[in-house]
Specification:
202 residues, alpha/beta, 2 domains, 54% helix, Transposase, IstB_ATP-bd, ATP binding
């Protein structure tokens, strides 16, 4: 009854269950468990905690990649001293997300070119990804062009629906959008589609 379970079979089952972190760690943890006389629940709990932590890490990495955020523009690299009119406390509150993303609120950043708006928006985006939210950073002109193509192929509703997976869309360089009716129209539809449901930062 005390015969050791076949290690190769355990590895196969963990692979089938898609538990790669446990698959990598379980032999070392089992050895430590034997030496320190852990209860089975402690061994299982420790392995599951590592699996969940690794999954969370990979999920954040995926979300950061899909966001198209500049990796160098974070809160740590933003110089609040250069823009004293920006409240650091307010920005840090926005970076938690729960006070406004859940309401589908929109944030507007105003200021002259080169004033740090893109950096600040990106920094908030990075912090929100770390908090578990999904973010998309895009130049406004680029997303407008994509939505125009979708409209021409009668796929605009589908294209807008796909953007719903993002808790926040950061629209950068709004001033560079041409003011013709077609571009204004699809931009309005994007804003209207997300109004009070999903957030924008402009």
């Amino acid at each position: 009854m005390n015969a050791a379970y076949d290690a190769g079979r355990i590895a196969l089952m963990l692979n089938e269950l898609r538990l790669p972190t446990i698959g990598r760690l379980w032999t070392d943890f089992a050895e430590r468990s034997d030496k320190e006389s852990w209860q089975a629940s402690r061994l299982l709990g420790a392995l599951l905690e590592h699996e969940l932590a690794e999954r969370a890490k990979r999920r954040i990495e995926r979300h950061r990649t899909e966001s198209h955020l500049d990796l160098t523009k974070t809160l740590a690299t933003f110089d609040f001293g250069v823009v004293p009119m920006v409240s650091k406390a307010h920005v840090m509150a926005l970076a938690t997300g729960d006070s406004w993303l859940e309401k589908g609120a929109t944030i507007l950043l105003f200021g002259p070119p080169g004033g740090g708006k893109s950096h600040l928006g990106s920094a908030i985006g990075h912090a929100l990804i770390d908090a578990g939210y999904r973010v998309l950073f895009t130049r406004t002109g680029e997303i407008v062009q994509k939505l125009q193509v979708a409209r021409q192929s009668l796929q605009l509703p589908s294209a807008l629906a796909k953007l719903d997976r993002f808790d926040l869309i950061i629209l950068d360089d709004l001033s560079y959008v041409r003011k013709d009716q077609a571009e204004t129209s699809v931009l309005f539809e994007l804003i209207a589609e997300r109004y009070e449901r999903k957030s924008l930062l402009i």
